[in-house]
Amino acid sequence: MDKYHITEKNIPAHEWNGLQAVVQTTAGKKQSWAGTIVWETKNTIELETGSGVKKIPKKIARITFDWDGKKMVLEAKDWIARPEDRVKLWWRKNA
């Protein structure tokens, strides 16, 4: 495995901005949006959809990435951290 290519195992270690994703809420009113992740903060994901930019809290989000024909699903609540810290955390645990 080339550690620098995105796979279903190392997606948390990569930049999410610019990736196509489907984001679903897992609590309260269940909703789902498809689009491109345009911004990520410690606690939120901003997804550009056909009807505008949606800001979704990570604590209630499930993100599905479609990469090279493979579906990768992440519970965003497991990755509540600044993007740069999320990447470092993953590499410390898995490198």
Topology:
Layout: E1 20-25, E2 32-40, E3 44-49, E4 52-57, E5 61-67, E6 70-75, H1 83-94
Antiparallel strand pairs: 1-2, 1-5, 2-3, 3-4, 5-6
Low-confidence stretches: none
The overall average pLDDT, rounded, is 90
Structural class: mainly beta
Number of domains: 1
Strand/helix succession: EEEEEEH
Q: How is the largest sheet built, in terms of strand order? A: 4-3-2-1-5-6
Q: Overall 3D geometry?
A: globular
Helix count equals 1
- CATH names the topology as SH3 type barrels
End-to-end gap: 12 Å
Taking the sheet with the most strands, its summary is: 6 strands, antiparallel
Question: What is the CATH architecture descriptor?
Answer: Roll
Strand content: 35-45%
Question: If you compute it from the alpha carbons, what radius of gyration comes out, rounded to the nearest whole angstrom?
Answer: 13 Å
- CATH superfamily membership: Ribonuclease P/MRP, subunit p29
